[in-house]
Amino acid sequence: MLQGKKGSKLICFFTAAILILAALSGCGPQAPAATTAAATTAAATAAATTAAAATTTAAATAADEVFEISIFMNSVNSNVDRNDNPVKSLIEERTNSKIKFFEATGDEWKQKLALMLSSGEATDLIYVGIGDINLVNQYGLDNLLQDWTPLFDKMPNANNRISADLRNNFKATDGKLYALTSPRDVGTQALFMRTDWLDNLGLPIPKTLDEYYETIKAFRNDDPDQNGQKDTLGLMIQDNEIITGPFGLPKWDWVEEDGAIILSAAHPRTKEALAFGAKLISEDLGSPDFAVTGYNQDELISAGRGGIFTAVSSGAAAMLKNIQAENPDGHLAVVEMPRADGVAKGVSSYANTSGIRDGHPMGIQCLLMLNADFPADKIDELTKFIDWHFTEEGNLVQTYGIEGETYEMIEGKPSILEAFQNDPLYLRQKGAWDVYLYAGYITQRDNWNQLWAPEAAQNMYNTMLMSVPKNVYYNTATGDMHGNELNSKREEIFRQIILGTIGLDEGWDQWMSEWKRIGGDKWTEEMNERYTQIKG
Questions:
Q1: pTM, two decimal places
Q2: Are strands 180-184 and 189-194 parallel, antiparallel or unpaired?
Q3: All domains of the chain, ordered by start, with CATH?
Q4: ∠ CA 127-437-152 to the nearest 5 degrees?
Q5: Mean predicted confidence (pLDDT) in 207-215
Q6: Are 176 and 370 in contact (CB under 8 A)?
């Protein structure tokens, strides 16, 4: 149900109450004063029978009453109509619900959601991506959302799947949890290399920064694709992570060090990373067009021009398919990020992880908000609805669809039917795999090899092994107010340093000056106070 303004709800309530009272106050002909005992007894018996029947009917109606729920999705699914397909019908059947989805495109959803919330016309539940936690918490602090914390007692399966530590990481500054997370097997960003190019050049996988540099240089200058032309690029610099990674840093995230946290972009080793990036561009070993509007790394890699890059697993799988369409001997592999001297571990990404499954990290898919106007008398129905998604049955339905139509059970495990294997799009068109991910516990890793080629499936698996678990999701008032401005300034200045428009020392001093001016030091202080509270 769409949540209307509270005032209109009260008007409807009192109107209904007046109508009911008017009906009850209606008068019929008066019975004679002198009534026989038999008639009185008969009337009493009939009344009792009617009351009993009414009670039974009311109980049956309550038990059979369909729970209506509306859900806002921050994307439009182009593969299937979320409101009309067999998987949705099965979810509704298993949860005794009627679901209405409202979708918005990636360009307009924030504006549309803000309008819905401010007007009091938002949906019951609101789904957004993991990167929107600060937006979620701001809506919570504005009293537009409900706290999930007291509801976990009514959701044993969700309580079991979402740890207390994970919940603490997503809480707002008022200590309330406005975002319900959903664990999901999902690949993450990693460093990929064309291993056939390494083989052509007789090179090993680089482990150190010096070896990384030599490999980049060879991929640019030594004809790794053996076509007799100098048309390959060295390092694909789509974002800064590919140059900050060897220095043990993500491009823009909070890292733990010596019992405190520091934003990676303000860490002294980021200056070393920028020097490395500027060196590559000055020697024509990087992709200088990375700062140009319209630069498309995926197209260049798919066309066989790039051999060292960072990408998410699904994107790399698509690029590998394009590469092998032109060159069946082309290969991509996830490799460990090389390390600079004194760095314990290179970083290809800070992954959104919720814990460990079978010894390997499990990702976090989304954030789910609960409208502050959701009626209290429907909370029990809501929690039952949500908790079903965290059961094994919920996992099977959301991920694999309908047994016998899209998958079958073999030795107690789901197996995708042959008609859908190696074709995730076809599976999605049936409403399965990742069409409904607003809530639940989604396990997919065991069946990756049924939807993607063995090489791509192995790469997906390996991205999780290479990732570093992200431990800081929360923010503070200063971060909410100035974080985007700081990040924009970082991108502007770091781009100039890498392209050589300004010198390293001058650029770094400029960045540190902007960092202090905008509020970076205050933000760091606030974040560390929160970090200390959470760590106890």
A1: 0.77
A2: unpaired
A3: 67-185+363-461 (3.40.190.10), 189-348+476-535 (3.40.190.10)
A4: 70
A5: 97
A6: no
